[in-house]
Amino acid sequence: MKKILFGIIALIILVGGAGFAWYKVSYGGGTYYVQITKDGKEKEVSDNSGKKFKEYDYDIKSYQKDGKEKRVTFMADHNLRKEAYLKLTVNSVKGVTSWEEVKKSEVPKEALKKLNNNS
């Protein structure tokens, strides 16, 4: 009975670990910061039903908390506010997987210094 219980626990741990690893590879990534200084490139696209909508593409330099630079591209469903600071999650395979606006005070000092030098 103990062997079966240990086997089940080991299987649960193995499956849980594999699921977590898959999630980290698919959706995890490093944190980078950007400041929006110009409008995104407007593009009209259609969904599968043919409905048209606009998206705005951004190609911009981003910085990690230690100041390490990486050029990133991402899109938004609206033109982002100029002078806004964004925190990005950048996956090595998928690129930018998420972004959120943050306050200037939330941007690490080294990243902020690099962003201010590029303005």
TrEMBL record:
SUPFAM superfamilies registered for this protein in UniProt: BC4932-like (SSF159121)
Entry-linked Pfam families: DUF1093
Name of the protein: YxeA family protein
Species per Swiss-Prot/TrEMBL record: Lactococcus lactis subsp. lactis A12
